[in-house]
Amino acid sequence: MRNYNFYKMLGNNVFLFFIFVMFFNSFSKAQEIKKYEKKEFIREDGRYFINKELPIYLRLANKKEENAESHLLESESSKDFVNPFYFTKEGKNILKLSVKVLKNGRKKNINFEVYADGESPISGINLNNSYLYKKNKHIYTSDTVIPLISNDKLSGVQEINFSVKGKDFQKYENGIFLKYGEGEQNIKYYSVDNVGNVEKLKEQKIIMDLTPPISKPTINVDYHLLIDSMGKEHHIASQRSNISLNAVDTSAGVDKIFCQLNGEKMHIFKKNISLKNLIQDKHHLKHYSIDNVKNQELLEDFVFQVDSSPPIVIEEILGNMFMASGVSFTSGRSKFKIKAEDNIAGVKEILYQINDNEIKKYTKEFYLPSEIRQITITYWALDNVNNKSGFVKRYNRKEVYMDLAGPELNHKFEGPTFKIFEKDTIIISPKTKIILIGKDEGASLKKIEYEVDKEEKKLYDKDTSFTISKKGKHRIVYYGFDNLDNRNYAYFYCKVDNTPPVLEWHFSVKSIGKKLMKFKKTDVYPTYVKLYLAATDDEVGTKKIFYKVNKEKEKTYIKEISFKKKRNNIVKVRVIDELGNEAKHEIRFIIDESNKENE
Questions:
Q1: Are 397 and 435 members of one domain?
Q2: For position 552, which CATH number holds?
Q3: Per-residue confidence band for 6, with pLDDT thresholds at 50, 70 and 90
Q4: How many CA atoms, within 13 angstroms, populate the side-chain half-sphere of residue 364?
Q5: pLDDT at residue 3 greater than cutoff 50
Q6: Does the predicted TM-score (pTM) go above 0.90?
Q7: Distance, CA of 508 to CA of 505 (rounded, Å)
Q8: Strand 214-220 relative to strand 223-227: parallel, antiparallel, unpaired?
Q9: Which range of residues forms the domain containing residue 7?
């Protein structure tokens, strides 16, 4: 059983070896170079060439015909070096004879030229074709035809033979036609001259490249790629930027890049394109590239936006802020907010500095330091292509004064007042105006509110002030607000007296009777009677008493009033206290000597 397996394995191996030998012999024959006879060659102009390796024999004939009888020459002096001899000099060899010329019978040395050719021709691929390019010993092409050229210094080229991908050699005529398609193809070739010198076989790897290069613009210095909500890309640059063009070709390599900016003439890209003089707008850079075998890229249109405008920066004080005479006032409760907008490249960052402190990156609104009264905030913004809102030291500046105190408050009265020193109390009348006063040196006074006896707060109107009509003691609390809503308050007491004095009067004698006066019984007094007036006030006392007898003018009461005429009398009395509270009365009586009643 073991022997059987051995012979079976041996048989299989012999079979495989046989297949390999047959394939090798077939491949060798396909690649076999044709045998060429070394020979002589007479050119059209009669020049005679002979392969340098061929033996030379000299014969003389006395007839010109080719089949004429000839005689092999022997050399008596150099017998051992002829028949045959060989040319050792490559190229032109001269045989000299001294003969008689039939034309003029003179003797002359005659030269017979023979060209010995022992060098094979030199062939190669004609790289003058613009679709061919040699790199790293490989030849790249975008054409299916590979042109060969060959040169021989003496007898000239007889033929060129070539083989593609190991196939049989064939005679070269108008080019080597390759199969169309990307990839490597191997060719072999050699040439033969007219005297049978065969060139050493040459082999060349041909890479067919049908893919154009890819060019790509790059914005240098200040560049921002903005992708909108639709996924579209927007290329944004500043005027400080420049654009470089680079192309990539993985095979034959890039030859040239062409470009055209905003419709200018298409030209070869040589140096970066400056954007210094471009206006703020969209621009078009058209470009394409060509590789070393003339594969040309499709024209690309690179659209980019030049942004030369810095962001717009806006500050806002959140909370309480008031501006007066170009100065901003803020309270300790306020925050400082900075907002920047840029409608092209977008805002990159906002920076700020308080007074001469460290420069910080703005991320969110911040409280202003309360320990510093006068604050200078310097702030600026950069967009995504580094345009700055303000240049050098001319940044946006915001001068802010910290105001933490409420207004100073005071009050006064306009109109009748009466002060009781012992009780430190002010007594006023219902007509007395109460004036509230506020003063703020920072953010200025905004408003005053007040309340009387814990009633609903009211807004104080400085043009009208206010009064209190209700009698009694009152507590007035008032609040002052500045324009930052800093608040202060104060209070005071006052007493309202709205009751006039009570009038008292009496006559110096008793009534002597009664009579009718306008249908009403009225006391009668004698002519020597006198009328005494007096008044009592509960709070501030009586100030003055005025009286008017009948149609006489009103007089100030100083002393008793006398009456000498017999008549009906009406005395009108007006009494005023120190606050101007007033009471009026009428005293009716009759002066007469008789007490007999009127009928």
A1: no
A2: 2.60.40.10
A3: very low
A4: 0
A5: no
A6: no
A7: 10
A8: unpaired
A9: 1-29
